[in-house]
Amino acid sequence: xxxxxxxxxxxxxxxxxxxxxxxxKSVERKDDKGNLKGSLQLMSEWLKQxxxxxxxxxxxxxxxxxxxxxxxxxxxxxxxxxxxxxxLFKKQNEIMLETYKAVRSIRLFFANYPGNxxxxxxxxxx
Length: 126
Hints:
Elements: H1 2-9, H2 39-50, H3 57-77, H4 87-111
């Protein structure tokens, strides 16, 4: 989970969401109280402002990424002895599938953006 968190969640740059372009709205880095928002919170707000979909963006993208971060927090801050647990493989597989769906949804949102019609996106299958 540490590697997955570093590859996907940790690489989300907040600057992506605070810059506006011609057709893309930005979001504020600070909340109403002046506190800095996290990258996942910024991403959630940015996606909701700039993408129209019937799907719940938090359920589809943000919650799986938050779950990865939550799982990583415990072993990153505590020391445990090694344990053998067969159920971990199934849990890991479920997390990977949810993460794949989240990343794939992000890719599809960008691939379907009208300004990207001339860009060919390769198809990958699971």
